[in-house]
Design brief:
Blueprint (H helix, E strand, L loop, with lengths): L1 E6 L5 E7 L2 E8 L5 H15 L9 E5 L5 H18 L2 E5 L1 H6 L8 E7 L4 E10 L2 E12 H7 L7 E5 L5 H8 L3 E3 L9 H8 L20 H9 L13
Parallel strand pairs: 1-4, 4-5, 6-9, 9-10
Antiparallel strand pairs: 1-2, 2-3, 6-7, 7-8
Helix pairs in contact: 1-2
Length: about 240
């Protein structure tokens, strides 16, 4: 199976091409967020360097959120367009789970974090067991205090990974010596791991129905709801 994996959820852009579990080519950029400018040229370059044609691809795996609105939207749109145009399979994976895949240490809970500003975060809790990444607490947009309240019964080592700096002090206060903090390299998503993980999942049944996993309202929608409190409150991406 020839797989194209894409993650532009946040500042890093990571794209990989795999042949089953064999990595053919990969590019990761962390210096900017100009994903609209670089994503498609990177994809084209990696496919060419892999000695493939676009029609050789069998599956696209995309990290579909949460994270940066623009980054998620870019990756999801590119993945849907390519999958539909090439008539191939599409698999979506949580961007937080994608980051958690960088941690292979057994016996530790994995807490990926994306900074959502003002002491808010996108986060979830995972565990690697028998080679499978399992969700313990579902992905969510939450405040650091509310999140730590959900972890009061955790009595085993926990590793935070991602945008840890704004929250590490609060985690350390609660977990003490049980806390582990992943280094900066581990905080960069790896499209090869994303593609390998996505190769084991079932593809979506309706590509057109795939939407980014924002997990919170955009500012425009929040402002609209304030002005229209009695109208449709579904997430706008579900109304299309």
């Amino acid at each position: 199976m020839k797989i194209l994996a894409i993650d532009t959820s946040n500042r890093p852009l990571s794209v990989a091409v795999l042949d089953n579990d064999h990595l053919l080519a990969e590019t990761t950029l962390t210096t900017h967020r100009k994903h609209a400018e670089f994503l498609m040229p990177v994809i084209e370059d990696l496919i060419q360097k892999s000695d493939l044609l676009p029609n050789d691809l069998n599956r696209i795996v995309v990290a579909s959120g949460p994270g940066s609105y623009t980054g998620i939207r870019m990756a999801t749109t590119a993945a849907k367009t390519l999958a539909s145009t090439l008539d191939i399979e599409l698999v979506t994976v949580s961007s937080l789970l994608t980051l958690a895949l960088n941690i292979s240490e057994p016996g530790v809970l994995i807490n990926p974090i994306f900074d959502a500003r003002n002491q808010n975060m996108f986060t979830g809790l995972y565990r690697l067991k028998n080679g499978t990444m399992t969700s313990i607490i579902s992905d969510q947009h939450t405040n650091i205090n509310d999140w730590l309240a959900k972890l009061t019964d955790v009595n085993q080592p926990i590793m935070i990974v991602g945008d840890t700096a704004p929250f590490s002090e609060a985690f350390l206060k609660q977990f003490g010596d049980s806390l582990r903090v992943a280094d900066e390299l581990t905080a960069v998503p790896n499209a090869a791991r994303l593609g390998l993980y996505g190769s084991q999942l079932s593809p979506v049944k309706d590509i057109d129905a795939v939407v980014p996993r924002y997990l919170r309202l955009t500012k425009a929608e929040a402002d609209w709801q304030k002005l229209h409190p009695n109208e449709d409150t579904r997430n706008y991406v579900e109304k299309i």
